[in-house]
Design goal:
By secondary structure, this protein is an alpha/beta fold. The chain has helices spanning 15-25, 49-55, 68-81, 100-106, 126-135, 154-159, 170-180, 207-228; strands at residues 2-8, 36-43, 59-63, 86-89, 94-95, 111-118, 150-153, 185-195. It has an eight-stranded mixed β-sheet, with helices on both faces.
Length: 232
C-alpha cells in the first residue's frame, strides 16, 4: 500500500483541486492497481476542508497544533500503522501530475525530492518571477527540498525517526537526517508539481514566506539601483 499525506489548515479554496490531482495519480496504470490511501490531516481547521476531503474519499485526522511538522508526522504514523510501504507527501495548495507517485517509485530510491513550479504569478511583480527563475534549479541533481513534493520509503523514514514536530522546515530536517544515514536520495526535476504563489503562508518560514522575502529583496534591489543612477 502507498500512502499520501496532505496537511491542511483552512484549505477549502484549494483542497478539492489538490485531492482531485492526487486521486488521478493514484489510479496511474504503472501502479498496477496497488492501493493508494490518502490521509488529510486537518490542523485547527474551521472551514469546509473536512467535508471536501470526505467527498474525495480521503481519510481524515484532526489535530489542534498549528504545526505542519506535527501534522505530517501524525499522518505518516497513521499510514505506517496501516502498512504503507511508501509515503508520498504534498500540500493542499498543490497540484500533482498524473504520474507523480509512479515516477517517485521508478527511481527505486530511499527518498525522492522533486521540484515545484508556480501556477500563477499574478500577485507578484514580474521582477520577482525573473529573480525566482534565476535562483531556482529546475534540473536534475538540484538540491531543493519541498514538503509539497517529497516521497520516502517507509523503512528509511522510520530508520531516521520521521518528521519532527517543527512549525517549519520539517521537510528539510527529514531529508538531512536521511542524508546523514546514508540514504539513497533522487534529486529530480522529472517529477514537478504545481503550487501556489500565495504570500499568506500556512506555515511560518515556509514557501510563502520565502516568496515574500524574495519579493522584498527584489523591490529593495530595484530601489537601490534606481537611486544609484547618476543624475542627468
Amino acid at each position: 500500500m502507498i500512502g499520501v499525506i496532505v496537511p491542511a489548515h483552512n484549505e477549502e479554496a484549494l483542497l478539492a483541486n489538490c485531492l482531485r490531482s492526487v486521486q488521478t495519480a493514484g489510479r496511474h496504470a504503472d501502479l498496477l492497481g496497488e492501493t493508494v490511501c490518502v490521509v488529510v490531516v486537518l490542523d485547527t481547521c474551521e472551514d469546509r476542508s473536512a467535508s471536501i476531503a470526505k467527498s474525495f474519499g480521503a481519510d481524515i485526522l484532526e489535530v489542534q497544533e498549528r504545526n505542519v511538522g506535527h501534522a505530517r508526522r501524525v499522518g505518516a504514523e497513521w499510514l505506517l500503522a496501516k502498512g504503507a510501504r511508501w509515503l508520498a507527501i504534498t500540500d493542499a495548495d498543490t497540484l500533482v501530475p498524473e504520474d507523480w507517485i509512479s515516477c517517485q517509485l521508478s527511481f527505486k530510491a530511499d527518498a525522492v525530492c522533486g521540484t515545484v513550479r508556480i501556477d500563477c504569478w499574478e500577485d507578484l511583480p514580474e521582477a520577482v518571477r525573473h529573480r525566482y527563475a534565476q535562483e531556482y534549479q529546475q534540473r536534475e541533481e538540484h538540491r531543493h527540498i519541498h514538503g509539497a513534493n517529497l516521497g520516502v520509503c517507509s523503512q528509511a523514514y522510520q530508520r531516521v525517526g520521521g518528521f519532527l514536530s517543527l512549525v517549519a522546515h520539517e521537510d528539510v530536517a527529514l531529508v538531512r537526517a536521511l542524508e546523514q544515514a546514508g540514504a539513497r536520495i533522487a534529486w529530480t526535476a522529472l517529477n514537478t508539481v504545481s503550487t501556489s504563489a500565495r504570500l499568506t503562508a500556512r506555515a511560518r518560514g515556509g514557501f510563502g514566506d520565502y516568496l515574500k522575502a524574495l519579493a522584498a529583496e527584489t523591490v529593495a534591489a530595484g530601489v537601490q539601483v534606481a537611486t544609484s543612477r547618476p543624475l542627468r
